[in-house]
Structures are given as C-alpha cells and as structure tokens.
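ok trying this again, last paste got cut off
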Amino acid sequence: MQTLHISVLIGSLRRDSFSKKLAKSLVHLVPEYVQLDFIDLSDLPIYNQDFDDDGLPPASYTNFRSVIQNTDALLFVTPEYNRSVPAVLKNAIDVASRPYGKNMWDGKPAAIISVSPGHLSAFGANHHLRQSLVFLNVLPLQQPEAYIGNIKNLMNDNGEINNEETISFLKSFMAAFLSWIDQVTK
C-alpha cells in the first residue's frame, strides 16, 4: 500500500507542549502505511505580503508552502489562546494561503484535535480554526470532534497518554480521519 503522508501542525511552540505530546502519541495509533510528518512552524516569519509582492519570499515560506502543497492530508493539534488559535498556527495558515490565488491548503482533507489542561478542552480554538479552514477550502472532518480536556491528568510522566478511554477515543478518531481522507481523495 502506498504511504499516506499526513502533515501534523502543532499550535504550540512550547518545549513541553501538551499538544505536541498528544500528537506524538498518535504515531502509535495509526497503521504502518500512514506517515505522520511533524511540521516545524517556529521558523516562519510573520506573514508580510511585501515579501511576495517583491518576489522575495523567505526560504521558510517557500519550503512550507511546498510541504503543504505536497502533503496528502492535514492534522492540526492545538491549544487555545484567548478563545482562539495560537498566533503561530494562524501565521502558518496565512503563509500557505498566499499570495492571492495560490492557496496551498485548497482541497486538502483535515482533522482538528484541540487540547487543554482545563475543562473547556479548547473548544474555542477548535471552532475558530474551522472558520479559517472552511474559507480556504480545506475539508475538515466533521465527526467525531476531538476536544481533549484535562490533558495533564491523562498523561504519565513521560508525556504518554495513559488513560484507556482516551486512547480508545483517539484510535477511533484517527480511524474516522483515515476513512475521511479516503472519501475525499477518491
């Protein structure tokens, strides 16, 4: 079977990010033919249209746009900052949607997992991200939705998910996502 490449975009740059830890745990919950490619967003300068207008986009823009253009699907794992997506994730969305008419996100199947140490499970970030994705013609998985609250209580000291219900949910979520990718890309 041909390898399915899913680009994983994490909305937190923090070294010990719960989002990053959860995303890494997903590697063990997908079939062997699925490759989760973790995309580093830390080197993307804030989007400035002048770079594109002058024909001199930073190499990091060009490389990132190429990665998004060539991926099979997208998985966003994000915390919530002030009831929205973190700036690093919004910036990445802006970089790959520009210049006008060259939207690298167009038509890509996607899924969103929002993560929070609190009870609200980053509901606001999840839905705010969906707004941008739908505008860019990204095709996000509708059901099941994935809001993971109280994340630090669901992980062991090594940052691995240690809650069987959560593991079971994440397995079913990833299976639904793979089925969605299959439906969208036929």
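PB: full thing came through this time. The chain has a mean pLDDT of 95.
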